[in-house]
Structures are given as structure tokens and as C-alpha cells.
Amino acid sequence: METAPSPRVSTLQTRLHRFLQTVVQPQESSVNAALRKAAVQSGQTPCALLEPMRQKAQLAGLWNLFLPASTRTSQGLSHWEYAPMIEAMGRIAWAAEVFNSAQPDAGNMQLLDSYASEPMKDAWLDPLLRAETHSAWAAAEPGADLHRPDSLQAQAARSNDHWVLNGHKTWVQGVLGPRMASLLVLCRTDAQAPLHRQFSVLLVPIKTDGVRIGRQLHGWGLEQSGLAEVLFDNARIPAQHLVGQPGQGLEMLQARQRVVGLHDALWCLGAAERALDLLVERLQTRRMGEQLAVHHPVWQQRIAHARIGLDTTRMLARRSAWQLDQNDGDLPPQELAMLQSLALPLAQDTVHWSTVAHEADALDDALPLAGLAARLRLMQQLAPPVEALHAQIAQGELLR
Description:
By secondary structure, the protein is α+β, with helices and mostly antiparallel strands. The chain is built from twelve helices and ten strands. The chain has a four-stranded mixed sheet, covered by helices on one side. A four-stranded antiparallel sheet has the order 2-3-7-6. The chain has a two-stranded antiparallel sheet with strand order 9-10. A hairpin with a 2-residue loop joins strand 2 (155-159) and strand 3 (162-173). The two termini are 23 Å apart.
């Protein structure tokens, strides 16, 4: 496995870090306040506050960095090359949006770039790459388990030159935004085929008749989560809106889970690094009795735990990114499960410790801790339970 970036990638990383420090971080407090209140001063919206930074990022060549080896992006970074960049973005809860690299759009764009037809890319992918529109991923269902596809109930039947879609999806992220244009919907299209070929992905325009936004699922009170349930009642989808080939749905689901799982883990490492930096800085000024808190054994244990966890998890994440590159997007399930079971709990612990050390100051808009804590808690709600990840790791070990 390579350990040093190429000169081109090293230069790009330097530019990204400089941009984060000089353009994004100075706006952190004002954007944090906007997201917390869900309505901002002077009639602006959080999206409007981000727009000038997005324009600067695009001009700086720091746009769509997540998309590897595509004719539709100028950078063409591998997963391994992109890994430290998404980690750097994780230091600020909303920074990935500045670079058009936030989920669920990033995962959807990679899926469309890999599987969609050229006309579909022209009509639906290109506007996403320009950040003119947003998309959502609709796979989870109430009472169903994505690890047991036979429990999924949404289905689409072919009717001449359309698919007729019926179903109920939940945990649909990003569907409430003003630029929302399309959903990628995992649904059963052939109940007679072998299980792994029964499912497909349809691109559903949000304004299609029969598509209804249901219950909104709010995210822990600190920011709008953008989550909702979506119901499909005889929604007629043009046949050419099938992404890829019939029966490729589970293949796409797994491909997306691998990439998004890696990106989320790397984002968690960035959040944990920022929290650790703030923790150490705070403990060097906070007193516990006659000594500085940084010298107290309990806090030293927590600092050590965070650093050990960060460095070991980062090595696992970089190895996973390298494997994705070497194996044409494939990654052993237990490898991803190990990464997911480590990165998110580590980030939550480190942010929590930093919050405790900062006391009431942790909730101030000048610090990122409240926003990071809320986003990490939401990620935990969307992620597989740690117990399920451990079971997957154990099963992989038993099959060796």
C-alpha cells in the first residue's frame, strides 16, 4: 500500500487545507448559528450563506473531489487520494457541502456516474455536479432490514413504456431541500428472478404524480436533518429512468454502502481530530484544584485513548480506500464493518469528552462541538448497530 501522495495530490491537499482555514473556518460561527436556528439574519438561508464559499471552491479547483476517474471531473482522484481530503472536511460539520461533496448527493453522483446511461447523466448527473439540484437515496423501509432484501416491499411493475412504483420509504435524507430534484429508489422489479436479481434502482423525479413526502423526521433539535418518509402510490416512472440494468439494484446498494461507509468513517476521523485539538487546548487552561486539568490522569487517559483510536482507525480507513482502488470498487464486508464499528463511536466519545471539558462554552456557536455532536448522533441512527457489525466481523472470521 502506498503511504505518500503524488506531488499533484499533495499540492491539492495543501490548497484544500488552506481554503478551509482562510475561507470556511472564518464563517463557521455564523453558519453554525444559521443551522441551529433554521432561519438566519437578514432573510438569508443557510444555503445562501454557503453559496459564496461554493463559488470560490469551484474556481479554486476544489469541486467534486470525491468522483474518481470520471470524464465529468477535472481531478479524477482515487479513493486513497481522496481519503485525507474528506477527513479534513469533517473538522467542520457542514464543510463538505462547500465542495459539493456532502451525502447523500456524493454517493448518488458516484452511482449515476458508474451505472447510468449517457442521456441520464446529461439530464440528471450534470446538474448535481454543478450543485444546481439535489438528490436523495431511498432504500430503507419501515420494519424492513437492508441486510435482508427479501423483507423489502417497495415494487415497480412494467407497464408499456413506464414503471408503476408503489412503496413506502423511510430515512430518506435530503428530500426536504429547496433544490431537491430526484430520488434514487431501490425497489423490486422481478419477483420471479433469483433474490439477488429481483431489485433495480429507478431515478424518480420528485414532482412525479403519486410521489408524496410523508412524515418529517427531525434531527435532535440542533439542525434540520432533512430526513423524511416518502410514499409512492402508482407513481409512473419513464422506462428510461431505470439506472443501469434490471436486477442490478442490490449490486448498486452494496457499491454505494462501501463508498459512503468509507467516506462517513473518514469524516468521523476529521470530527474527532477537531474535537481532540479543542480538548487539549481547553485542558491547558482549565484548572482542577491546584493543577491544570491536562495533568489529571483521567484526562490524560482520554487523550491517549483518542490518539490511539485515531491513528489506528485512520490506517484501517486508508487500507480500505486502497483496497477499493485495487479491487475495482470491491471491499470485504468485514473490512467495512470493522471500520464502521470503530470510527463513529470514537468520534462520539472524543466530541463528548471535549464537550464536557468546555462546559457551557461547548454550546456556543463559535465552537463546532454542538453541530458535530448532533450530526454524529444522526449518523448513529442511520448506521447499522454496532452489535450487527460485530456479528458480521465474527462471521467473516469463522469462514476463514
